[in-house]
## 1
Amino acid sequence: MIKRLRRFLWLAIPIIVVISLSLGLMGKLMAQQPSISHPLTSLTEAEISTAVSVIKREKTLSEMAAFPLITLQEPDKEEVLKFTPGKVFQRKAFLVIYERSQNKTFEGIVDLTSKTLSSWKEIPSVQPAIVASEYELATQAFKSDSRWQTAMRKRGITDLNHVKISCWSPGILSKQEEAARNRLCRGLFYYKGQHWNYYGSPIEGILATVNLNTGKISSFVDRGIVPFSKENWNYDVKSLGKLLSPLKALKILQPNGASFQIKGNEISWQGWKFRYLMHPRNGLMLYQVTHKDGENIRPVLYRASLSEMVVPYGDPEPTWSFRNAFDVGEYNLGLLANTMELSKEIPENGFLLDAVFANEQGEPYKMPGVIGIYERDNGMLWKHYEYNTQRNDVRRSRELVMTMTAAIDNYDYSINWIFHQDGTLEVQNELTGVVLAQGTASEKQSEGNSDGRLIAKNIFGVNHQHFFNYRLDFDVDGQANSVMEMNVKALPMDEKNPLGNAIALVETPLINETAAVRDLDLKNSREWMIVSADKKNPLGAAPGYMLMPGGNSMFFPVEGSKIRQRAEFATHHVWVTKYKPAELYAGGDYPNQTQPGQGLPKYIADDESLMGKDIVLWYTMGVTHIPRSEDWPVMPVHRVGFKLAPRGFFSRNPAINLPE
């Protein structure tokens, strides 16, 4: 996919991170220095080095061995919940090791305290995420192949250095590819002439696959020449020419400093308290989300993260039909996080945090400014105007936002965790970047082509979807929880409802895992609620948190399609499972070249009870993108999300007593 070789350049490229100089934020900067004071602290650079050295000491690795993933081994949940400051706790690292020469994948767990290898096992017939060196390997394989060279010359390209190559996971495999079980990637090709934005010049008609184990092209098909745009689609200020009139300055100031506190990886704000972790696969995650209610600290979530994504493209043409990206598991979304800047991705009153990752050689490195945190105004929080007395009571709303951005080839995404003063936690994803363009001879929209839309001369935007699955490990007032489905119904007219205006809420418990595979229903305003199974609020009801869906879509690939079998998590909006620590990924642990039915379908196969259990809700939300000319050359941001809102959790509006 993206030229992720840029990761190698992090230590060589000077990066300036602008940080507010207010004393409050400088104190927070000091607080984020590495300190292993809690079991959920991210791995430090020293711990990563220790883990890799133990693996190399205990196992004989080849020179081609790669470390696609190194992260904190999830500590035991019970131990974390019982942890108190100063208590000794275990530290373990989880590592995925891929031996390319053997085409074998291994998982290791290293005890960082004793510096010993506590677990080592081969995971047969799987492929981990693509690593940086494989993009260069694939590029060399393509450019050294005579068939590829001939195909470029047929298209009038004589200087092969003008061809940019992107490497994608192979997606849908042929029967021969499934049988061979080699590690593969497929090439996407672009012409880069005088203009740096090569995404507007895709080279169509070629389906070429590299065997990454041998470094050779394993299959090559040229389906014919398709014209591509040679126009200048650069979008820098110089290329755009005349600009819009500039806006007048808008300053965001907090003269007394920010209202949130940072202590290690723990954030406190307006009754909320939580921990964050930057995971190399999932990206920005939350742990131990609690809310202070009077003098009580009440748990809401133990762990919340983006679990998987899938982006199916809707063109059946063979050079496009394989394009079904699992951006979390196939490419390690967290490792693709971008360094952000104040007054750009986040406002000037924000604060930037660093993250520590490991490259494929197992070497640790620090990425500056990949996490942003800031407060922002959100209009009115609550208001009532009393006509009789002309009394006007109103409070303004403020939100705390924690965010990250990632570039995955042409697309850019952000993940935003938004904390509200009324006890609501909101998740908002932002989609932007460049449409994955298809070259075409057309200069006018054709009525016969329904797979997409012409978005510029010689540039076609293919219909596609983006699906995100979030894993939400609820602990509402403790671990004993149940899940209720809420449907609103209009009651029929009868003697009890003579005017036909009655509206009833029907609450149905979802008793077991297979019964809890559910979908949105706009007609019945369907929502879901996680409730405490052993506690009652002052009104005698179970306290709970509601899942309030936002925009969503149905998964359009039809029954029997290969991508529907691989991405079964996207075929339903809600899944609920009994908590099991190893069940972390909706599309399975290794979605790259995966077999059908992995992840959630397997997790629910034992059909565990959900009544009064420690349960996990998996929410899938989708965007159907029918491209338009206004999406070119860079798309305006599209937002999609959901909310987790208290229902019977507080005894009154938790923000009613905010000072004016």
## 2
Amino acid sequence: MAAPNRGRRPAGAQGKPGRTLVLILIAMVALTGGMFATGDTTPRLGIDLAGGTTITLKAKAEPGKESAVNETNMNTAVGIIERRVNGLGVSEAEVQTQGREHIIVNIPKGTDSEQAREQVGTTAQLFFRPVLTVAAGGTSPEPAPSASKESATDGKKDDKADKDAKSEESASASASPTAQGRAVTDALKAPAADPTASASGSPKSSESPKAEGSPAPNASGDAEMSALEKQFTALNCQDEKARAALGDSTRPEKTAIACGKNSAGQWEKYILGPAEVDGKDVDDAKGQLDQQRGMWIVTMDFTSSGAKKFQKITSKLSQQQSPQNQFAIVLDGEVMSAPQVNQTLSANAEISGDFNQDSAQNLGNMLSYGALPLTFSEESVTTVSAALGGEQLLAGLIAGAIGLVLVVIYLVVYYRGLAMIAILSLLVSAALTYSLMALLGPAIGFALNLPAVCGAIVAIGITADSFIVYFERVRDEIREGRTLRPAVERAWPRARRTILVSDFVSFLAAAVLFVVTVGKVQGFAFTLGLTTLLDVVVVFFFTKPLMTLAARTKFFSSGRPWSGLDPKRLGAKPPLRRSRRTTVVPTDPKEA
């Protein structure tokens, strides 16, 4: 007769559950230590909980242009908008696409929302246009209000240029209204149009040399000039609708009208020539403090092709009289700055004037990050105050606490002593979830929003469901007449398969939801997937070892009524006994 295999354990048996518990406790201590070491002891909160501003932008392709609303252009726009917002010093802004033609910008509290909207909302392309004439922003061609103009230089200290700029500014400011009115007509009818020539400098094929003083026979051109002059005279830049209409109609290849504020904060209106340089020609720009002069300036660096274009246009502008020696920096149809040019500039330029820190840095950001491949319209702006966010967070926490209390009550009433194992497992799962959320904030930018809180609440039920599956398998084994210790080990393989299949389905649903959705819904999917993975870890490395140790205690193994494993209450069958074969051993050798 073969000897029994004494070293073989029943299926699912776990020889040293204490070691497994020690491993998960070490992991918890490591995560908690990492959380305190990095200083991120609380999860980052999303806009809807912490407060902030959410801006929704809609992309649109302009007719006649090569730009199209596609994935490449949208991703490029996201990168530029993100850099522009981060230029404000916002380190936790979120910029992401939503669907095919929308971009969502989330800006946390503590940021000037109006300044952020200015940076995000000014999403059209950036152009440098020569100024033909400028007047006050009212409905009559009055002279522009006296305000110190910015000037563009090559960065060298040129006192003579500064004096010339001041004298030109004074001359412009002292011009009479009648002279300003004539300047509109003269600027539009200037035959040479040096400042408005194309970048190549060659005349259009439809143009031909005319005798000096001969009138232009192009009647449609004269009519267009007359209409532009009337529009300029009637324009009131203080009217927001009038300014918006200008932004929609401005074409870079045509003479245009635009509005802008001077350094005194007063509106001015401009007639601008065709764009000579666009934002793509700017390599870098930034606002910085000139220590020697004690003033804020904006420095610009151009690309190689942009430097050639800029050199050509500034060479022409430097030979003109004010205001036609100015070039306007136009963003989204609005003149952001119109510095004077007193010398030829090329790869590097400097804009100086009545800048403060904010205005210099804002202009630097717009110059550096202004060239977007698409035009965007601001579809919606939602601002959540910190107080409202706190109320929503409190409501979410209350909902989670109510759900947890109901689960605990159910476990205590139905499973009694086993509820202690379930509650300890829930606490371990909560500790792991909290520490991971706190660490994932600075690591991958995870922010806990209201849908993510909902995902965590749903995870309470998923985790409790795994415990219930295991407990019921153990109870089934006890009903079959087995004692607790073998019942715990025999129930585990069956419960393990069910738990893995259930968690796999939940994780697959969370993964699909995360891939096909954007925005806040992704927070729900991410939290659900994370807690599902942690459920597997907790059940395998905490609940099962703890259940094995509990089966060795007298309280559970004796089947007391409050243990939740009372055989009588469960309707257990009589204990299973192995059938033994009776062998008669003869005592008489003759009988053998």
## 3
Amino acid sequence: MKTAFNLIILILILLSCSSNKKILVSDSESEYDIEDILIKTRDGGTISGMIARKKGETSKKTVILQFTIYVRDAGKGTGRDIETIKQSVDKGYIGVIAYTRGKRFSPDEIFPYEHDANDTYDVIDWISKQKWSNGQVGMFGGSYNGFTQWAATKKLHPALKTIVPYVANRPAMGLPMENNVFVNPNYEWSFYVGNDKYLDTLAGNDRQRFRNMMFKWWEIGAAYNKLDSIDNAPNRLFQRWISHPSYDEYWQNMSPYKEEFAQITIPVLSIDGYYNDSQNSSLYYLKEHYKYNPNAEHYLIIGPYSHFGAQRKGAKEIEGYTVDKDALIDTNEITYQWFDYIFKNGNKPKMLKDKINYQVMGANEWGNASSIEKMSNKNLKFYLTNKKAVDFYELNSEKPLKNTFHYQEVDFANREIMNNDYYPSPIIRDEMDKTNGFNFITEPFEEDIIVNGSFMGQLNVSINKKDFDYGVTLYEVMPNGQYFHLSYIVGRASYANDITKRKLLTPNEIEKIPFTNTHLVSKKLSKGSRLLVYINVNKNPFAELNYGTGKEVTKETIHDADEPLKIKWYTDSFVEIPIWKE
């Protein structure tokens, strides 16, 4: 009881602090001074954070800042957050970690993503004015922490000199929706980060609860916006997000958008993975940065890593695939090499041979290019023909002389059948799904090639409804007959041309559905390998279900499934696959 009372008193004291008053957090190791801070923002918000400095150090130093929603400090002066800012001190810097508004000792309400652009600016401004700061700030971190670095560049503070984002999230371009299709993981994540000032690990780890909810929703055919009713737990953040199905100003205000990238002149080092679910978020930043600032100093390291592996040291095996030995890197070590290069006139990390640095799976080597476009020197264009190739159809470089189609019906009322087995788990599989959708396969290659970059294409379709969600997945068919997952896209047809504005399809008319936002990959294909493209309608419990009425998809129910989706996939549809060929 006494302990709880003392904790309440401590919190009250902290919340009453002004931005320039700090509470010393006890630290058993004498070489560090660890201090709590509360920073007032321009609009009256409060940001909680911690500073680590070398004890007795009086000289001004560069500050390494992390800005996160994940509070992994127990309030006892120990924990993962303390250790990470201590490491900055060990590397010769001052370490600061600050938390999204509403977290830890901030009294404000928690709204992930929404205030971070303004709040990171104010935190950097505060840091730059402290007597221990030399006016230079660098940032690093992954996932949400990657997003906050880009948020900090929306209005670039003069003190921010570099960022090192790993697997950076861009809200609405990966999670909570991907290519305008809402996917499920952020439903539970909203409780994990939004339920209290720290992390609600009970909710976050209760996977069975959310699986039960997901499959019940699937079985009863309720509207997607009723997920929290099924869960018996109001989810204010989920409801907030799904009210913005277009990439509108709500999302655009969270990080740089279009011309705002032009003013980002600081050097950037991005780190990502081929099997990072939100890869298209991270690479969006890079592509837009170069689009609006062709002279940007922006480097990329990418390899066979998952979302978490890219933030650490990778993994020897990922989803059943044993990675090449040279793919294993130390992200943290590279990060501080980069900081020393920027701030201490040190050497650039050795692996940065060019702007784009990628591990070639199956070759046990790294490749380098001046841009993503320069990763390849040829595009292979294939059409989705109707000519049979044993169990599949031919993926042929010659456009069919007669434009016919593949016909598919999808009964959204039938919950025993799921469509679109696109996810790379496992990466290597023995069989392809032949129960629905269509598979197209090339002839065996007569020599080694490297698939290098992001494939693209165009689906020419006609449907009897006003919309549908599609999936396109790319595989290597290895000489031994196994299927190696290379890349994929899941998207909404009505947003194919503009993610900011929905344009419904005209029933029974041929429509062109271009797609480009696929996952980047580099993989050596040996002689005798083939490529396979799998197309399907996205219908499964893992994302919202688009019934095609043209109404808000989150409000559609199984009652909108009175007529099956009837789709014609025309054979002049095509894919273009970037390769490197000597």
## 4
Amino acid sequence: MPLIPVAGSEHFAQGAEPLQGSAFGDLVLHDVTDAQIDGVDALTYEVVRHRLVAITEEMGDAIKRMSGSVVVTDCNDFGAAIMDERGETVQLGLYNTQLGASLDMAARWTLANRADNPGIRPGDQFLSNDPWVGGGLHQNDVTVLAPVFHDGELFCWTGAVAHQVDLGGVSPGSWSVDGLDVFWESLPTPPVKIVEDGRMRTDVEEMYLRRSRVPKLVGLDLRAKIGANNVARDRIGALIDKYGPDTVKAVMKRMMLDSETRLRNKLRALPDGEWTSIAHQDGGRGGDREIHKIVLTMKKIDDHLVFDFTGTDSQVEGIINCTLAGLRGGILPIVLTMLCPDIPWAPGGIYRCLEIVSEPGTLNNCTFPAGIGKASVSSAWATQNAASETVAAMLHTDPVLSQSAMSVCCGTWDLALLAGVDQRGGGFVTMICDSMAGGFGAKVDGDGVDTGGQNCIPMGRVADVEINEFSFPMLYLWRREEVDSGGPGEFRGGVGASSCFVPHDSPIGGVHLVVSATGKALPQAQGLSGGYPAGTQWDVLMRGTSVQEAFTRGIIPQAFDAIGGEQELMPNHHETNMGPVDVYFTHWQGGGGLGDPLRREPRRVSVDVSAGAVSVSAAESVYGVVLDAGGAVDELATEKARARLRSERAGV
């Protein structure tokens, strides 16, 4: 069934560009002159700048302390930012930078469309989960924006955004794996005033929470984000009281100017060029076996980058599309981590160095009402993979800047979502965030970090096994790093890992399972400069196992053979129930390799084998390294094996 266009939907896609003009209802915007920006002395600039950085960290601490969701408290799947009076991002927190990448869009949209009606006033806060507006990548990413006033003038904005475990839709967790369009999913809500004059609007809160299967948990997260904005307002107010509004604003403007200037200087030091990458996704919904591609040609021209997505496939029926917010969320984390590790993270300045070319109606710039329920870890993530490959290739042209590059990190997110009745008799829904421990890509001077995390979430964490078991009706058989999961290369990609668990202690016996994990038909963590990609993802559901009998004997099974039962290889998108003796195994990806694996030092391969990162068979067949019975390198056999592999490559 084709998507039916919805008239007027373009109204909700206005926040990508900086606002023009100065008339926004009866609002008066606080601003400073160029002379005031230039007039801030170096010491004051650094003190105030670092205080603004600290405020975003305090916002993050406030969210974590008030939230009750493991996704937030233990996995750090949230973002926080400070924006200037026009919504340009001054400082982005070190949490999920994908989420923070579009807070500016939401602030600009709110300023342009809410100043007249219902008005923007001191003590107000606005809630939104509409990815066409910005502020998040899919509907589960809920943003709360707060205008900060000083002496009656709109001084700046603060924003807090976090993944909510369920906001309605056909399937638990709002991951409707069989969905065709957005109407199968959680309702996208453009900015609505949730706090007015410092007081929660109960009518809006109840309308928002009514959609969720876990309203109390989502309500607690709502208060956490409101509280984070309150913390930021108070801290910014104290900063203004100490240094004056003009000085603080001048520092904000200079932070963005500084980031822009330093990034332009870095780009000028690199040769102009053009680099291309194609990122694939296998399956847009349940039953879809097609391969969908995102094409990126990145051009470096003097002091700016052009990200041209011409050739990307059209949006599809399913849940994998993303809006322009997701596209920006795929680019910014790579630019921040690879190009700006030594530059202040002020996206308002960094975006000035970037140009995006993308046709509306495509996979990573979809139009309403395309399905976007999995946008954050589908098309946005694939966009990030493509950006990672092209930016890293560009950096490899410079011997110094190349040290900031790495191959593609964990190529996709292996989603396993559980729902049902927990061990305390209450309803629950949760995303298992074990995939947060993905493998990092290899670098020019070393291996990728094994289970190092996700490069788009610098402070991402994986929840302790005990936290998950305490919070949800599940019991782990193992969570461990997996052999041969990192991409082979002269420098190896960091390995990924797996988890294996069984429902445990639920009053109804089992749990509901939603699976949404691409990267099974083809690898998605590409290598660089001859490095191989990381292994593909795979998930297995084992039915009718003997795990309970093993428990009664005091044994925790550590391998499939010991678990028994009938194995079901999971497709990319699937929804089912797990019984009390069913076991689920999820295996996520590592990072891509860098350089020809035949150039890897044989001694390092031997160490990898002894550490369980590389198997003996892969050591010989991929790296051309032959080990003796004691695990030491057989140098003569290795020399012959590598010569044979090179001949096979040449077709000799």
